[in-house]
Amino acid sequence: MKFKQLTALLLLFSFFISCKETTETKITIKQDLLIDLNKLNSEIENFQHIVTSNSSQKDILEQFKKSRLAYKKTEWAIEYFVPETARFMNGPALDEMELEENRSFEPHGFQVIEELIFPEYSTESKEELLREIKIFKANIKQLKTTFEAITLSDDYVLDAVEQNVYRIIALGITGFDSPILQSSISEAGQSIVSISNSLEIINSESKTLVHIKELAEKAKKYCEENNHFNSFNRAYFITQFLNPISENVRKFQLEEKIKDVKKTSPLKQSAQTLFDKDAFDVNGFILSNDYKLTNDKIVLGERLFYDKALSKNNDRSCATCHNPEKAFTDGLKTNVSLTGSNLSRNTPTLTYASLQNAQFWDMRQLDLEKQSVDVIQNKDEMHGSMDDIHAKILLDNDYIVLFKKAFSKTTKPEAWQIQNAIASYVRSLNAFDSRFDLYMRGDLNVLTPQEINGMNLFMGKAKCATCHFTPLFNGTVPPSYSKTEHEVIGTPQDPAGKKLSPDLGRYLFNQMAQLKGAFKTPTVRNAAVTAPYMHNGVFKTLEEVVSFYNKGGGKGLGLEVENQTLPFDALNLTPNEEKDLVAFMKTLTDKKYQ
Q: Which molecular function GO terms apply here (predicted)?
């Protein structure tokens, strides 16, 4: 009896010790983060003092870099837990727009400061610079209040760490958040170390963590020894360090039995790396669970996609303009109307169209369901009627069978189901089996040295990946993938570049000055087989596209584009570098189109 009582007491004591350790772990993570925020605040105060005392540009730049490095230690938590504040600490130096309310907010933070102090700093900017620093300090204060109030449980911490690995790959080493100073490489090393430090607090005895720490230290050392932005080997860095770290973070999670955070996201939590074949979930972009992708919906949607009965005169289907032999484009400069006249826009590929938060060049529809209705009912494209199509389907026994199979709860086909079925077929068109994909999954012999150099240019000197984010290569911003971006690049009306395209893009639907000439950033995947390019099909070849960007877009050509978001300074790519860049883009072609 005494033995049983003693055993019970020991078990109870062990339980309290376990609870105490868990509580202390969570507090320690919070404490460490708050300490790092205090260090960041100290660096910002030093920055404020240096600017106030009219120090040299060299001193100002050095302190700015120290401040950014201090931020990178906290970035994993700020970006994940307080993204709204993060946007105004290290977001793009572009207005943040709320289109629904037709208003915009001026940008703040490091990227705005960067433009004030580099490449030239004038004391005339001192007042504005001090204002930005004051706003930054206020944001730090808000962050400290937030993190003191919330619980940082292990599952959320680990999810934040995983997303930070992906952030380094897609944003960190591309110069996305340091576009002018290009201090991204040394900062990436700091961000990687913060990953292992955060996991160490969860379980410092883990053998997997020891391996992560070794990889993180090697990665940091590689960044320190190869910190030149343009020559940094991103292909090597990702395959040898970041992907293995990502795999081991997932392994650590499984060993520690840390549950996945329940959330709807385009990026699957089961993914071991950002480049897994099934890393992305198209259901992350759907309206509700009723719209989830299934094989039966794909079968039904494919039949509807090729059915000419969807058009008014039964002479045009979705496939008429989205030819599967051309990666679901039409190969024309611009689309052709039902009467044979040329329309104003180029037909974009439907491959990977499901992995974005907006459809059409002008982003006027948010999902594929509305996109299909827009095209079907457009008088120049199909001139169909959803009511008429619905009526036809209700009289077609074959279709009724397919609809009942695809939508098990339905007794007869409904109009929304027609849209969802077509959208489901489009959602099935993502292969992720290009030579680039194989390379990133470990087949390091599948790309040539020229193509690898092209990848490094794409993600570095050429700045392509600051808009076409790896690995989707479209404008859907990682790692949350909750927003798809547009750009104003100053597309010319003709290849000679003497006149700006008159198409106002997003401005036609949201009349804000920043949106004049703004168009969705499309995917570069399958670009080699989806010519011609741009919203108006102005360029016939990838070589022409690269040349346009190399010159600085429309503004670089001398066109008047006041609101151009693309940097208008020349990239200074050599002829060989331009060829390498094109060679890399050709590696993004899916296997079936090679």
A: peroxidase activity
Return the CATH architecture of domain 283-427. Orthogonal Bundle (1.10)
Same fold, 283-427 and 435-593: yes
Distance of alpha carbon 473 from alpha carbon 275, whole angstroms: 12
Give dist(CA 283, CA 100) in Å, integer. Answer: 24
Look up residue 384 and give its two tokens. Answer: 């169909």
The reported pLDDT for the residue numbered 467 is 97
Nearest residue to 88 (alpha-carbon basis) of 74, 105, 71, 68: 105
Banded model confidence at residue 102, pLDDT cuts 50, 70, 90: confident
Q: Report in angstroms the alpha-carbon separations of 127 from 68, 113, 132, 356, 558.
A: 21, 12, 9, 40, 32
pLDDT value for 27: 55
State phi, psi for 118 to the nearest 5 degrees: -145, 140
Half-sphere exposure of 210 (CA within 13 A, CB side): 3
CATH superfamily of 435-593: Cytochrome c-like domain (1.10.760.10)
Q: pTM for this structure?
A: 0.93
Distance from C-alpha of 387 to C-alpha of 378, rounded to nearest angstrom: 14
Q: Count of CB atoms within 10 A of residue 252's CB?
A: 22
Token pair in block for residue 180: 């002018």
Residue 524 has pLDDT above 70, yes or no: yes
- Condensed to tens digits (0 to 9), the pLDDT of residues 406-424 reads 998 888 999 999 999 999 9
Tell the burial category of 231 from Cβ atoms under 10 Å away from its Cβ (0-12, 13-18, 19+): exposed
Write down the residue that tokens 């090597």 correspond to. 236
Residues 296, 288: Cα–Cα separation, whole Å: 18
What pLDDT sits at residue 411? 85
Q: How far apart are CA 454 and CA 468, in angstroms?
A: 14
What per-residue confidence (pLDDT) applies to 137? 98
Domain boundaries, the chain: 1-145, 153-261, 283-427, 435-593
DSSP string, 211-242: HHHHHHHHHHHHHHHT--TTT--HHHHIIIII
Catalogue the E-assigned strands of 399-543: 486-487, 519-520
Phi first, then psi: what are they for 568, rounded to 5°?
A: -95, 5
